[in-house]
Amino acid sequence: MLHFDSLVCLPALDALFEALGGRIGLVVSSDRFASMAGFLRQLRRNLRHSGLRLTVALGFDIVALRIAGFFAPAMRALAWPWRRLAGGDHVYWRRLPELAAGVQAPCVTIHDINARAALDLIRRFAPDLVISFHFDQILQPAFLEAAACPVVNVHPALLPAHRGPCPSFWALAAGDSRVGVTVHRIVDATIDAGPVLVRRQRALPAGVCMGELDERLFADGAAALAALLSSRPTAEVDPAGSPAAYESFPDGRTVRAARRRGVGLWRLAQAVRLIAGLFGWYRPAPPA
Fold first, then answer.
1. Among positive and negative, which fits the CA dihedral 200, 234, 22, 123?
2. How many domains does the chain have?
3. Per-residue confidence band for 36, with pLDDT thresholds at 50, 70 and 90
4. pLDDT of 90
5. CATH number of the domain that 154 lies in?
6. Nearest 5°: CA angle at 182, between 20 and 272?
7. What per-residue string of b and e applies to 169-179 under the rule 16 or more CB within 10 Å gives b?
8. Range with the largest mean pLDDT of 46-50, 79-83, 165-169, 231-235
C-alpha cells in the first residue's frame, strides 16, 4: 500500500486496514519533503500560486497530524483511565506506522517512489496488487514494470471529472450536486486516468467544506475498495479512454472567487474531532 499520511484520511485508513487486515504485506509512506529546504521551497511555490488560505488548509492537514502524532502516546495514556471509568473501550484512530504494525507489515518511508532503491524494494517484495491511497507521487512506467502486478488508485472524484490533486475543491467550486469516489487502474504515468473499476457517488452534503468532503470521500473510497477486492472482479466499469482535462492546484484568484461563493476550505471543529479521535478522547466513528 502507498499512502501519504493525512489528518482527513485517519478514519478511512483505519477502516481500510480493518477490512484488508493480513492481506497488506508492505506499507510505503511518502515523504517527498523530508528536508526543511525542500519543504520551504514547496511552501513558497504554493503561497505564490494558490495564496495563503488554500496553502494553510492543505498544509495544516499534513503538519497537524505530524505534531499530534508526536503527542498521541501521552494523550492516549491520559485518556485511558477516563475511558475505562466511563465503561467504554479505549479506541482511537491510528497513524500509518501503527496500522502497519497491527498487521505485521513493514512500513517504509520513501522520498522518491521511482528511485532505484524503491524499485528494488518493490521487486524484492513481488506484490500481487499495489494500492495507491492518498499518495502524492506520480508512478512512472519504471515503477509499474517493477511491480509487475495490477496497480489501483483511489481518487476522491467521479472520474474522468476533476482529475488532479484538489478534486474536492474543484467539485465545490463547480457547484456539483453529486460527488463521489473512483477506484481505477494505473497503467501509465497519466495522472488519475486508466480503466475505472468502481465508482461510488453521493449527493453533495449541504454546507460541507473541502476538508470535510475529503474525509467523507476517502471513507467511501476505502469501503468501495474493500468491497471490490472481496468480490474479485474480472471486468472493468469503463475501458481506458481519453481522460478529461487535468485540474491542478487552483490559483489565488480562483480560490478567492470560490470563497466569495461560499466554498469553505477547512473547519476547526473537524480538526479538533479528528485529533481527539487520534488521542482516544472519544470513541471515533466513520463520517456519515
1. negative
2. 1
3. low
4. 59
5. 3.40.50.170
6. 70
7. bbbbbeebeeb
8. 165-169
Task: Find cell 473501550 and name the residue.
Answer: 89
Give 125-146 pLDDT, tens digit per residue. Answer: 999 999 999 999 999 999 999 9
Is the residue at 182 inside a domain? yes
Instruction: Please give the residue range of the domain that contains residue 21.
Output: 2-279
In which order are the strands placed within the sheet that holds 151-155? 107-110, 27-30, 2-3, 130-133, 151-155, 178-185, 196-203
How many secondary structure helices (H) and strands (E) does the chain include? 9, 7
Measure the CA–CA gap between 174 and 192, rounded to whole angstroms. Answer: 19
The radius of gyration of the chain from alpha carbons, rounded to an integer in Å, stands at: 19
Q: At residue 222, what is the residue type?
A: A
Give the global pTM: 0.92
CA dist 209 and 85 (Å) reads: 36
Measure the CA–CA gap between 30 and 13, rounded to whole angstroms. Answer: 15
DSSP three-state, residue 199:
strand
Instruction: Please tell me what DSSP assigns to residue 2.
Output: E
